[in-house]
Amino acid sequence: MADHNDPNAVNSIFSDIDVSAADLYDLFGFPSDDKDGGEKVVIALTFASIPQAGVFDTDMLYRILISPDPRVVRPSQEDHSLKGLLRYFDAVKERYLGPSKAAEIRVTVDQSQRATVKFIGFPGGGFQTQIPLNQSHQVSSPDGHRIKAYLGGRDDAFFNDLTGFFRSINYAPQFYHVPHTMASARELEIPKTLLQLEGNHLFNRDPNDPEWGYHGKKRDLPPGPLTWSGDRFMKNENGKYVFVYDGRDCQAGININAIILEIPLAFLTKNPERDRIVNCWGESWVLKAADKVETIPDHPFWLENPLSLLDAFRLDDELKKYKLVDTDGQPFADAGLSEREDNRQLGANNFFLAPTFVKRLAHLGWGFGPSITAMGLQTTFDHDNSPVSVHRKYHTAVAAFPRAKKTLFQELRMPDDSWNPKGLDIPLRRSFEIFVPNVCAIDMDTTGTWPYGRRPEDQVATRFLSLFLDMEAEFNGRKYHIDLLADPELWAVAPVEPATPPNPLKNDKEFLKEFPYLAEPW
Amino acid sequence: MQTQTDFEKELARLDEQLSGLGPAALAEPLDTLKATEYVYRLYQRASLTGNMRQLEEAGAAIDGLLGRVPNPSDLYYLKASLDFKFHRLPEVKRSLADSPALRESPQGRTLAADLDFQEGRYREARAAYESLVREQGGWDDIARLAHLEFKMGDADAADRLYGEAEDELTAKQMRHYAWVELQRGVLDLKRGRREEARAHYERAGRAYSGYWMVEEHTAELLGAAGEYDAAAELYHKVLATAPRPEFMQALGELYDTAGDKGRAEEWYGRALAAYLESAGRGEVCYYHHLVDFYADVRRDGAEAVRWAEKDLGLRENFSTQSALAWALYRAGRFTEARAWIERALSSGARDSHLFSQAAAIYRRAGGNGEVEKFERMASEINPHRGGFHVHR
Fold first, then answer.
1. Is B207 in CB contact (< 8 Å) with chain A?
2. Residues 6+ apart with CB under 8 A from A34
3. How many angstroms separate the CA atoms of A393 and A361, rounded?
4. What is the ipTM, given to two decimal places?
5. Which chain A residue lies closest to B32 (C-alpha atoms)?
6. List of chain A residues whose C-beta atoms are within 8 Å of the C-beta of residue B109
7. Which residues pair with A44 in a beta bridge?
8. What is the pTM of this model?
9. How far apart are CA B390 and CA A2, in angstroms?
10. What does the pLDDT look like over A340-380, one tens digit per residue?
11. Nearest Cα to Cα of residue A82 among A491, A370, A362
């Protein structure tokens, strides 16, 4: 009896897969301008271009799940308590986990790079088709609906200063070589902030090394302490605060792979007049090893693990051969609100994270709230007039809720009325409605601009920050709105340098006016 | 044109990565990421080929880098993993002590649990593995728990856990899947289920082709089934890739079982020379094999006891306890042998080989009804025991 039978013998020390085709990037969804033959919705799921743009990984399965529903009518009297909030999540949960199972579009690609696209659970029945990659196709359903499909490589439609965002949350792996065995040294215990903190040498921009944190340029993590002990925001030689962002587009010149569909609403629901909200989210699944060798072993584990048992009944035979890796519904739902933990990849079923969402929002609020105040703006977050950002974590939603209450419940004002071209009585959305469940809820009576869906041209990274602005306050005689932080007039007067919106205002490549909308790959 | 096996492809990819980085990766000014990747690839390549000399070289490269990087917790992890392969448990402990970051990480907790297992603290090991599985759900910790169940005699639970570990593995981890399949095959073989073992080994070979580890397990299976020529051919093939002394001994035992004493002696000689050379270099990883070699091949009880005591001094667990018991038995020191086998049995371990040894010891040392009991228990676990087998 020697002792070489432990898994170390198989050499599994660190993951060798740095970037995976399972890494979902964005989900876009909006009503198509093309009304010919009826209303249509555009849904685009983007993911890492592995092995390369225009070539799909044949071990992957991608799903786009779709659940059309009526728009929820908001009661005249609402309960703005934590109990009321949790009751709301419970009620919505029934819609997603109850009998009204979402329909789905499922994509796999074979060795010849031909895609099999399956339409499952739609009112007119399911069907499947095969199409080559990197071309636009028109697919006809058995009941005569025409669906446009493009699967292949495109330009990355996301445009943002990702490094700036990671600087704002003190996310070390963007700036440092963080060892695999130091997982706790990723999001460091330094206040989140929109303004550089005086003495925060770990994350403040280095004038002598302006590219640090960009294009993979990293440093060795210093020995510590990996904390900050200052008490004020930094000011530069001009007496201005220093913005953590500089507005550059970190996704410029980068390609992605994408599944882009334009689908008649009448194919998605039997009642397009009633079901005005198209809820959708994406998932990536990777083939299990057992099925790669085309031998399906017994899975007694499923009989012992209730959650897996649930899956065993819910999943069909094809899906049982795959393992869920990533989900995508709302931008920043994972990165901003779930601390990027892999075991929180729940997609629409993220209800049990509702208390976490409240705690995390309060945690972010203690960082961003004082930054917003220092810039001379009004925030919804109750930070006790703290002169500087604070690192505070909450163990319970009960403790966090009073701080974040207004941030959770305030209506997010739109910059103008163009989002609601029909002038309907559509309530403004609120942050708790946007992020739980983690779906892209496309309102077919709007333009589909975020948060009523997501259009490629939406600057969602900047809009995400606006959750913490007090929409009752005014700037230049106008109420705050979700694009205020993208307004150059604001930065012209804000005591901040660089005097720039946090993120670029447009993509590095023009979007197309017609299908498949996302720009050609580089 | 002959297509490359999965093993050859992975080896070629590692060689490409290593030559891309080059030894310059360790030169000043040091790029921590490149340097760490370089020594990791060295370690990975040596592990893949099973070449202990290359592993030592990888270890030396890791040691040389340790004082030069600011956050060496990953290097300590590599070093500790490598030390485990060489049974250098005090070194593993030192790495954990020297790197608080490693100690507190899930990887460090797994290493500590492995130490518990190796040092006979089975309850602590089980609790730690179960906790890691709950928190992390990683296939490797599930497999560790399976291994513990196997050693404690619950083969069904072990197989179920290995199945669970497989369910965590994806198409991107086929070598790992093949390894788990091999463990499931070993479970079957230890219970005399040769056909089931063969099916697992074949699946492992399909999952990851050209792997010497699959061939080595298959060679044992063929030997157990009396297919000596085919088994010998495979052992020779394995030795061409991984010239390790335990495989030389296995080939010797195979020839011995087949009645070819001349060839058996030739391979025994090579194995012993390599074991002793390793021990002469100060390595401890073959102590256990030396005990086994002197006890069962040479039947030299005194030498077997000498190596068994050295091994026991490094790590006291049911495996080293029973090895000492068996060495004492060979030396004719039956009363002491009984005391040590009873210590091994008190661990709760259940294994047909262990029970067979216990029966033999009780036969000479005395024990009311114990001989029949342990022979029956050994037979219940593996009705085919006694033929050609490898001590894993």
1. yes
2. A40, A262, A514, A515
3. 10
4. 0.87
5. A220
6. none
7. A28, A260
8. 0.89
9. 10
10. 454 444 455 555 667 888 898 999 999 999 999 999 999 99
11. A362
